[in-house]
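Late entry, written up from scratch paper. The run itself happened at the end of the previous shift, but nothing got recorded in the book at the time, so transcribing now.
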Amino acid sequence: MSGQTFYKDELSAYLKRRSFLLRIGLITGGIFLNGCYKKIRSAGYNIKGTLQGPDAKAGHILRDKIKLPAVKKTRKVKTLIVGSGISGLSAGRWLKKNGETNFEILELEKHTGGNSYYGTNKIAAYPLGAHYITVANNDDALLIDFLQEINVITHFEGQLPYYNDYYLTFDPEERLLINGEWQEGLIPDFGVPIADKKEIRRFLSEVDQLKNTKGSDGNFLFNIPLSTSSNDENYRKLDKITFETYLKEKGYHSKYLLWYLNYACKDDYGQKITHISAWAGLHYFAARRGRAANAEQNAILTWPEGNGWIMKQLAGPLKDHIKTSTLCYDLKPMANGNTLITTFNANTQVTENLEAEKIILCAPQFVNDRLLKNFDRNIDYKAFSYSPWLIANITINELPESKGINLCWDNVAYNTPSVGYVNSAQQHLKLSEDKKVITYYLPLCDFEPAIARLAAYSRNYEQWLDIVIPELEIIHPGITKAIENIDFWVWGHGMIAPAKDFIWSENLAKAKTSIDDKIFFAHSDLSGVSIFEEAFHQGINAAKQVLNGRS
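Output as recorded:
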């Protein structure tokens, strides 16, 4: 009997003997390492830090319908934006850029940014979520214009944009720990059998061809923003099968290739190839074709605080329009065609009504489901699946020596649960630093999202240590003694997962449709792919709809 079969039988028998709550305990006290489930008991690590996440208490006011103070006043606003993630900030930027200043942006959290939020300590700034973008596709004029606006693109040489060298990822960029050594790049190579290498090359050749192929309508098969991709049904039908099914049909079976593709899907979608549609899986590889005057195609742009840096560039000019710690918990249509929104400010403890002519909802759809109880949308909100994540920012005073290429910006280990860690100090100008903050990313994808989410919320700080430290010790033996602090951040709904029959579904199309040209929608989950570019364009599209109907 194989170890994998034994594990499945053992786990199945175990789960049958336990109640649901004990299943959560099982998940809490274990970890997948090298394909095997291992029970972990606390080693009593003497490591200090915090365990945080989005403001669940404020969010549960909406979910649990907690009674709030009586409404004190009602006031009017022309356009109300609900949510200050990238899509909300992008919508606000576009309104202001086009002369509309009578708008407010309301944010539940104490800060702006959504999953582009970031943190700082005495050593460095670091991401708490999204941490990079690639150079823009050259036909994405709106994004290129914004990147010029914030000096990420400094000028053009010929027809190609020249990117600010300080924001392009410093070398060395990526490495993979495989077969006992760190190799350059993330595609498995060191110690990989020739047959596997040939299969990897075949897949890369296929997606390279897809990258440059256009459909019957003349559009690229896969593009960013996703809405500009070809509607060629010969390829859109790939959304109706899983990536795993597609790979099997194509004859891909190399464990090294499948690991790499699982890594890619976990990285952008928080789920494995078994859960992601084939269209989405191929989009990851075939949609980016940006070229620059001073960088390789698809070069990476990053900052110490990750996409928090871009978020600050969006939020800064909008500071007079943003109100944080403000919950929207009821929307009602009014006889005059406007919409009445009830809000509660956690700082002032004041409840008030806002009468808005237009609204842009930049919240995920599970929030919209609760906000729009007074509107009939006929949408299956359960079709929206969100991947939970753990982010760990780890302060270390040294990194144990290891074989192969030295520390890079992105550091990944083959066949471990996480998608590795980024070195936030990579973009610092200091030539050497005694201490560093590394940001570790763990998609919680070994169980169904709802179960993984409940398990994540149930864990305490020590239990997260029990999960993270053993993997770090596999990657860097002896690292525990060098760790000074770990700050954990849990995203219960970290990003949308593009499951099969989702991206091009009728249900998603309906979710994007405005309500009576009064309430508009903008969020990356409406693209099905949770990347900066999609949220950025979602915000602009909604703002354009508002402006097209302004009086």
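Residues 262 and 494 are 18 Å apart (CA to CA).
(Scratch paper discarded after transcription.)
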